[in-house]
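step 4 of 6: structure.
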Amino acid sequence: MIQTRGLTKHFKDVRAVDGIDLTVAPGELVALLGPNGAGKSTTLRMLTTLIPPTSGTAEVAGYDVVRHQREVRLRIGYIGQGNGAGHSQRGRDELISQGRAYGLSVRDARTRAGSLIDSLGLAEVADRRVSTLSGGQRRRLDIAMGLIHAPELLFLDEPSTGLDPQNRANLQEHILSLRAEHDTTIVLTTHYLDEADSMAERVIVIDHGRIIADDSPARLKAEHVGDRITLGFDAELDAAGAAATLAPLAPQRRGNRLVVTTQDAPRRVPGILDDLRAAGHPAAEVEVTRPTLDDVFLVLTGRSLREGGAAETRELVEV
Ligand SMILES: Nc1ncnc2c1ncn2[C@@H]1O[C@H](COP(=O)(O)OP(=O)(O)O)[C@@H](O)[C@H]1O
Ligand SMILES: [Mg+2]
């Protein structure tokens, strides 16, 4: 559905996107995760034909984004970052107009608008003026706008930024059920770690215009960070003995605590506790810590993604 080679965008001396090779198969739900300024929006804007690449190539739905803009546009939906200022039309009419703009007949546009209103839970608000909708309702309407012409591929730029947690969860659920219903390929950007983690089976981590990791959340965490098992002992002597027992796991000792870094910790803990008991150094307490995608980002870049996200939230409030 998407194939890019060396996709690059420079704005004067800013390398916003710096040589991205990306392949997305039909039906995938991919999250582009990265801090503010990483190049996520610029990547989407090139893939949706809104801006031309400085160099490199991209094919979307089988068409080159530079030579066949029209063909690409007919096959995709795009919901940009921060769409939708005050509109005086009613939601349903906006949807129908959008369908007409994509070449649907009035009848087809009405039918399609009706079914999206149902599946996105907009029935109660479709006949209100758009300017009176809440952020979450407005964002769901934006998504309906992007889907009115039944695109094969939907691009969502920060779909849930600025929504409260309840509306965010609600929107995520709607996106997932749309995908289950229509098999739409979805590429979304986010700086919410939990959103990338829970929604996407594939997360592409972007930093400074480059892809620095591309895998499922579970494999990213296992490969780059691993789980941590912290074992507490009643006495330092026990901790020392336990460290010898667990030597193959290369534990680190801090006073009367041992820390083991491993994969699949919840499955390994029972065996470890058994071994320690058998060796006469039973653990008094145990804690398992599983990594987040932020830990992955930290290992890959030395920076926390959380700080970038917080900075952007502050900016949004000021605007
Ligand atoms: N139209 C533009 N002109 C100049 N610089 C831009 C423009 N659009 C984006 N940039 C710069 O490109 C970089 C990537 O921006 P963007 O793609 O918006 O990042 P993200 O969406 O990941 O936050 C940033 O440094 C940004 O300031
Ligand atoms: Mg952006």
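step 5 of 6: annotate
 - The first helix runs from residue 40 to 47.
 - The mean pLDDT is 90.
step 6 of 6: archive
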